[in-house]
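Customer escalation, tier 2.

The customer says the design service returned an amino acid string that "doesn't look like it belongs to this structure." They asked us to rerun it and document both sides in this ticket. The original structure tokens are below, unchanged.
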């Protein structure tokens, strides 16, 4: 397997990651962060770049499916976790890509309903998913370069044409706000979903490749994709910050991206932005539906019928949920993310570290404590945080909605110390 395959895989990974949230979240983050944009960028890239790429490295190590991420806890836990993640993926981020495409790529150019957009969109998604053996080549060779060129045009024009004058930040805790906003990209979840798609795609193309060869290719591709994501996210956040005095303070995520595009790309902005949004969203939807269909196919003894039915159901659900506006889908997603994201992050970290530090016992202890300490953040995201404040105020980092971090770290250390031989 040569450097060309590594490059194609890296491009495909970038494109499968870079979807609706990845495009619309960073500019508004930068716009609101002002002179503290770099703190927000660090937080955002921690949860939206570092953790997802560690997820790809874990996939390179495991070379299985998402099921392998949680099997050290228990087979039942792993199965439930997989079903929950895939259900969330096809019910929220996948339809959101169609909603963003309609609002930003179709509506400004044509008088068309969101239903027509979603129908055409998910028919095309279904065609790509059914022809899954060609996904790596089409996405990696053709779609990703188009996405990168347009993004870099927007960022470069802003950086080289504007004075570096920033307004004040709206965030009291810019770093933690960046981390939590990174949740909305779904990239950590995307890592365990699309990582499996990459594994299967490579297996289909390079059936004779050894474990070590595939591990090397996937690992290098993951790092290259991560560098690309970091560059784009930091660039978009900086771009948003440079326009901190150019728009109304309550401007929406989609509107600010459109406004920045018009100011940087001029008269060609509408067409170029439409192409960018369509490509970025489409590749992510293909990755999510393919990953879900692959999983269900594996649960039904590699049944191609199960694969096709799952793909069809995922696309129908995408059409239905895609009728809601982007802001509503993001708001609905928050409670689910506050609960499932910490668990996903912990599973990624435990799978990427050496096995001697992640025994089944340590796995179970750390995952269980993470679930327990994620519950208050989940309840808070539902609007009931005040009702349990008296019972949770002692939890470290609770005010940053990351109360699970230190307990999980403490249990990880204690669990490993307890398992070290004495003498």
């Amino acid at each position: 397997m040569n450097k060309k395959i590594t490059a194609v895989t890296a491009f495909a990974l970038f494109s499968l990651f870079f979807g609706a949230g990845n495009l619309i979240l960073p500019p508004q983050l930068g716009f609101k962060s002002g002179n503290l944009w770099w703190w927000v960028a660090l937080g955002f890239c921690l949860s939206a770049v570092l953790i997802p790429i560690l997820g790809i490295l874990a996939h390179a190590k495991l070379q299985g499916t998402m099921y392998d991420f949680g099997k050290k806890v228990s087979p039942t836990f792993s199965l439930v976790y997989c079903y929950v993640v895939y259900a969330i993926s096809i019910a929220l981020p996948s339809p959101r890509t169609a909603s963003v495409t309609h609002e930003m790529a179709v509506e400004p150019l044509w008088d068309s309903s969101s239903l027509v957009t979603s129908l055409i969109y998910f028919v095309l998604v279904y065609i790509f998913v059914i022809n899954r053996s060609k996904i790596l080549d089409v996405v990696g060779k053709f779609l990703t370069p188009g996405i990168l060129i347009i993004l870099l045009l927007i960022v470069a024009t802003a950086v080289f044409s504007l004075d570096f004058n920033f307004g004040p930040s709206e965030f009291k805790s810019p770093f933690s706000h960046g981390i939590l906003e990174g949740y909305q990209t779904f990239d950590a979840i995307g890592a365990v979903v699309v990582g499996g798609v990459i594994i299967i795609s490579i297996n289909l193309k390079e059936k004779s490749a050894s474990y070590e060869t595939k591990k090397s290719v996937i690992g290098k591709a993951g790092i290259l994709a991560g560098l690309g994501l970091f560059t784009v996210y930091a660039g978009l956040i900086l771009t948003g910050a440079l326009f901190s005095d150019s728009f109304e303070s309550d401007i929406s995520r989609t509107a600010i991206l459109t406004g920045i595009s018009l100011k940087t790309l001029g008269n060609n902005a509408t067409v170029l932005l439409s192409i960018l949004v369509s490509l970025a969203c489409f590749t992510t939807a293909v990755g999510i539906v393919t990953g879900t269909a692959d999983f269900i196919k594996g649960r039904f003894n590699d049944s191609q019928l199960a694969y096709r039915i799952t793909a069809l159901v995922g696309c129908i659900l995408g059409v239905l949920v895609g009728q809601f506006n982007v802001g509503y889908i993001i708001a609905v997603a928050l409670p689910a993310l506050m609960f499932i994201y910490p668990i996903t992050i912990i599973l990624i970290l435990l799978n990427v570290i050496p096995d001697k530090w992640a025994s089944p016992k340590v796995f179970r202890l750390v995952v269980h404590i993470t679930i327990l300490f994620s519950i208050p953040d989940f309840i808070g995201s539902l609007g009931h945080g005040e009702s349990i404040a008296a019972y949770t105020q002692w939890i470290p980092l609770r005010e940053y909605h990351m109360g699970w971090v230190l307990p999980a770290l403490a249990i990880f250390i204690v669990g490993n110390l307890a398992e070290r031989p004495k003498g």
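Tier 2 assessment: The sequence is consistent with the input. The radius of gyration is 21 Å. The chain has a mean pLDDT of 85. Sent an explanation to the customer and offered a walkthrough call.
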